[in-house]
Structures are given as C-alpha cells and as structure tokens.
Amino acid sequence: MDKHHHQLPLTKSTSRQRYNEWVFRDVPTDITIEVDGGIFSLHKFPLVSRSGRIRRLVAEHRDSDISRIELVSLPGGTESFELAAKFCYGVNFEITAANVAQLCCVSDYLEMSEDYSKNNLGSRAEEYLDSIVCKNLEMCVEVLRQCENLLPLADELKIVSRCIDAVASKACVEQIASSFSRLEYSSSGGRLHMSKQANCELDWWIEDISMLRIDLYQRVITAMKFRGVRPESIAASLVNYAQKELIQKSLSDSNIQEKLVVETIVSLMPVEKFVVPLTFLFGLLRSAVMLDCTVACRLDLERRIGSQLDTATLDDILIPSFRHAGDTLFDVDTVHRILVNFSQQEGDSDDDMEDVSVFESDSPTTTPSQTALFKVSKLVDNYLAEIAPDANLKLNKFIAVAETLPAHARTVHDGLYRAIDVYLKAHQTLSDPDKRRLCKLIDFQKLSQEAGAHAAQNERLPLQSIVQVLYFEQLRLRNALFCSYPDDDIKPMHQSWRINSGALSVAMSPKDNYASLRRENRELKLELARMRMRLNDLEKDHVCMKRNMQKSSSRRFMKSFSKRIGKKFNIFGHSFSRDCSSPSSQSERTESKITERT
User: Which CATH architecture has domain 31-135?
Assistant: First the structure.
C-alpha cells in the first residue's frame, strides 16, 4: 500500500492506528473515496455489497476501471462515512443517541437499504430510533441536537418530527403524572385537592430542551402547546431559554441570532395573562428595542405589559433609548404606547392590528380598576419626574405622557406638580404660553397642604397659576374654619369656583395687568399668612372652649366666647357683626374681584 493509500480521513477522532484496525491489510485497496477532503483507501467489494449508491457509481464507470470516487455533500462528513464504511466491513460499533441521526442520514445517502442487503445500516438505525430513542425524552433531545447539522435531510426522513412528537408526549405525560401525584385527600371536606407544590418544580425537561437551537426549540414548544402542556410550564421554559441565549451567550452570538431568539420567544408566549413575569417582558422589550426587532414583536410586548402595568416599577419603565445622539435618554415613545394600551384595554380588537401578533386573554377585557389607575398614576408621575431633566425632552412628549391617563386616575396631584416643577427648572427657556399650557395639567385643588405651600412661593410657575394656588389655599382655610365652627355665621366657599388664568382684562394693558397681578399676588400671600395665624388662635380657643364646657354649662361663658370669636373672625379685613354685610355678599365680592383681576 503506497503512501497515498495510507492517508487517513481528516477527522479528530480517527487516527492511523484505528484506521488500520478495520481495513484489510493483506489485500491491496482498489478504490479511493474522498469525503470533504478526507481520503479513504478501501475495497470495492464490501462497499458495493451494502451501498446502492457506490454500486451504481462503480457500474457506471466499469469500462474506465474507476479507482477514485468523490462523495459530495455527504451528511455528517467524514465521521458519518467512517461509521458506514465500518458497517460495510462488518466491524462492530455501538449505535447511540449521539450517532443514530448520522447513521440514518448517511445510510439514506449511500442507499444502504434492505434492497441491497438484509439487516442493512438503514433498518438497524431506524429500529434503534423507534424502539429506544423515542421512548426516552433525554435521548430525543440529544438526537435533535445532532439533527441541527443534518437538515434538511433529517426532516425529510422524519427524524426531527418523530423526536419532537416524542418529547411533547413525554412532557405531557409527565405533567399529568405529577398532577396526580400532588392530589391530596381532605378529611375535613371529603374532597380531593391539589397540593401547593409549585407547578413547574417537576418540569425537569425545561433544562433539557434549552440546549436546542432556536428553530428546533420553537417546534418543540409549539408541539407542547398543541398537546396541552400547562401555560405556566411553557412560560418557565421560555424564560429559561431566553436567559441562556440572551445573557450567557450574548458575547458569542451575533445580533442577528439574538434578534431571531427574541422574536421567536415572543411569538411562542402563551395567550393567558399573568403567566409570563412582567420583569421578563420588560427585559425582552429592551432587547427588542436595542436589536430593532419587528414592529409586530414590539407591539405584542407592549400590549402584554400594558395589561399588567399596575404591577410595574419605575426601573421597569425606564427603557434606554438606542436611537441617534440627539434623542432623549429614555425611550418615551415606547412608554407612551404602553400607557395607551393600559388605558384602552377594552377598546382594541384583532381587526385593528393586521399582521400583528395580538395579545389575547381568556378573561373578558375590562377597563382598569380605580386601584390599578391609582398605582399607574403614581408610576407615571415618578417617571415624568425622572425624565423631566432631559434637555432633549420636548414639551409635547412630556404632556402626551401626562395626559394619557384619565382625569380621575390622580386623586392627588403632588407627584404631577413635582414632575412639572423639575421640567420647568431644567427648561428655563420655556416661553410663558408653554408654561401656562404645562401648568394646566395640574388641578391645584388636588394639591396637598405642603405642595400648595411650595407652589405658592414657586417663582418658576406662571403668575396665573400662583394666583390659583393662593386662592385655593384660602378656600381650604375658610372651609376648615367652617367645619370647626358649624354654628357660626361663616359659610364655605363653593368648590365650583374657578379662575380663568388665561384671559387678560380688556380694560387694562398687558403691562398694567401684569403689575396688578403681581401686587395682588403679594397681598394674597400676606393674607394667607394672617389667615394661618388666625386659624391657630381659633384652634387654641376651641380647645379651651371644650375644657370649659366640661366644667360648666354656663350661658355666660358661651356668650363671652362668642364675642371673642367675633373679634378674631375677621378673615378678609371686614367685620362679621350683624349690622355689616352678610357672608354671602362678601363671598360674591371676593369672587368678582378674582374674576376681574384675571
């Protein structure tokens, strides 16, 4: 045997010694087989007795006495051909889950069927696949992993579909068995009930199938969903697979591969609500934005997040922006769409989103509850305060996010006021009309006492807004006094009063009107301070009155106390004695005065 015939197949697992072990040494080789650059010096007889393909190639070149054959695109390469050649030579080797897919494919390529030899390689490999592999879930997963490099032939031979069906069936059977094992009998109620063991604890297959490539993993999950595997188990598998592919392999995988993984996982998510963790949805959305996934993928994630936004945190919705340098620091547009989905949960239909994976739910769609609205309103206000310092944040975007929720969502406007104050501080070049437009978002009646006190002295607010704040502060104090002394002649200001902050007096020039508003603003601040002092005095007198009434029920004491009250209860600088104007006429003058100056 010359040096050329002693060349070995170019595989890492084969050495010169192993090659010489099963090739006849006493008979010269008469055919050379080339596979993917690997050279096999063999004998025609054992090959043509088992392989229909090699028999045909040799027969076609009988006249030219062919001695060299190249097998192009042989599945499995040199490693698979070496196993097939060993079988032709009668060399024993073990069929395993790691090589059965290769043997099935190479036997089909070389036409090693029963038509050419009894108990040929093809039938032996098929028997092992059906009787051994398909009865074991782990072995099926191993075969699927080997099939990744044998497509599309492994698909044509139905190796992939048989293993996928077996995995789905085994997982479903395991789930049913685990459910029965968790049934417990209640002696008190006389009924069977499920123990509180976590549903996914017994789903050991989750880790096994996470080793598959994304295309085969998708087919396995689809088959499991069709078989009826629990949505919670499907969701747990998706989370586990995403963590491995997007976190552990992020350094080695390309953006194209990561994009494919994200889009596939989103398409595989169960339609049931709340089975997929919200933090995982936000993580996928960040990846989808960063990788520029399809619009359908991102909209599907935004819908799912919007359906359970009341459980989100501020860190969840702070999604970084991955666009050009002049954009905002955070992706405000995405958050705005999520808020729209939250507010309009009952308004969307499948017809509104063509060619989009629309999120469905088994439960009837309803508008958000007041509790959910309250939670989301606090979340939005905190989000606005966080993004407000961004110099690139346009006023229209800020207002659009703030106005997404209905008016009744915010019971207190302190958070919204704080966010607007931060925005005004960071955008000092904002024009007066824009400031007034921004401050119209605030209902100053819904500010707490502390926020109202801060707003009353906040020079960043438009003057009209400050006037409103001071007016409602007076209103609050006046009503507090009325509640403290309901028998007195003091009447509360009506809650329906409003101040027209945008209209200028036609009888005054803008300059005079501004000066007048400034002057009245100072007067209101002083009056507010005096009212607070009087309220403190009245509270002290109230305490004294209660103590004295417990000691004595003398009418003389009540009469003297009424006189003291009459002297102190001069809120707007006018007497409240019987011979002066009534409280209602005072209220009318106050209202007309406020309307006139605004």
Answer: 2-Layer Sandwich (3.30)
